[in-house]
Amino acid sequence: xxxxxxxxxxxxxxxxxxxxxxxxxxxxxxxxxxxxxxxxxxxxxxxxxxxxxxxxxxxxxxxxxxxxxxxxxxxxxxxxxxxxxxxxxxxxxxxxxxxxxxxxxxxxxxxxxxxxxxxxxxxxxxxxxxxxxxxxxxxxxxxxxxxxxxxxxxxxxxxxxxxxxxxxxxxxxxxxxxxxxxxxxxxxxxxxxxxxxxxxxxxxxxxxxxxxxxxxxxxxxxxxxxxxxxxxxxxxxxxxxxxxxxxxxxxxxxxxxxxxxxxxxxxxxxxxxxxxxxxxxxxxxxxxxxxxxxxxxxxxxxxxxxxxxxxxxxxxxxxxxxxxxxxxxxxxxxxxxxxxxxxxxxxxxxxxxxxxxxxxxxxxxxxxxxxxxxxxxxxxxxxxxxxxxxxxxxxxxxxxx
Length: 401
Description:
By secondary structure, the protein is an alpha/beta fold. The protein has helices at 15-28, 47-58, 71-85, 100-111, 127-134, 154-160, 183-193, 220-223, 255-268, 274-285, 289-310, 347-358, 382-397, and strands at residues 34-35, 94-97, 117-122, 138-143, 165-171, 200-204, 231-236, 249-252, 316-317, 325-329, 360-361, 363-364, 373-377. A hairpin with a 7-residue loop joins strand 9 and strand 10 (325-329). Helix 3 (71-85) runs parallel beside helix 10.
């Protein structure tokens, strides 16, 4: 008797989780692995945020909360969005969940019907297509090449939109590329979207404060507030405040959409952890010095990785302005042979070679919908990054034509 529902045959385990698990298995067997797979800050949660969680426990705030979060957290979210976007949201336009991933999944579940299409620019975060499929939608992948800095262009957006398009998912800063859109680029995309008034837009802005460029990161709604009634802005505290384990994400959007999300939430988990909500409220409204300090260190790490990779024959990397990843073009090593004579026939093979030969764990570009590339995370210390770059350089030098 099969235990899985038929829908489970259409999806696969998260490639990033699989890659991290392989690295962990090697480490547990005694093999030293330089792990560049994990997309979470290596910093500890700021002390003021931890203290807020501890205080919530000590004063007994350990019960169910409202489905859409505590009053304090909703107010902190609304205040932050007003500062960032200039848009005033109400309580009824806010939902909170157990991480941004949970919020996105619930939003898709609340809105997709069989035949609905979701436009997903590639490279994409690995879970988007599977989330769409699990909720009866059809992912429509739009390839965004390195020549366009991995960004969606107005022409490609228009080409991908149809009368069946339900959502566009726009992730910026991007996982896996770190790509960030300028005001002009966002305005150009908004102009196309105005021609398709029935298309909803999910802006995944989980890395918006992990910004490594000049000034600050700008989101779609800040540039195009006229789209407010069909944009669901998704964010959280995991990446910005090193709170991945606290599992707290949120969204803001049109009241009917958020109401549907909250209805599902009421049946799925009732509410996120009350303790995590207290910590998240402090993270969003308290001292923000950690954000700038972390960004400064990420910037130095990015520069280290990009400089070292671009010095390796056959590899090429762009310096993204956000997140903590580098998406590396490995087309220059495809066709070369490993020391045992195996031909590197794609990015999957190259990533496997790096793990076996160099003991460096990375993630293949095919997992993100674009080959031949591979992703490294620089959310780790510079000593590990330097050692990993040395090992990758040695591994590439060992290849023959």
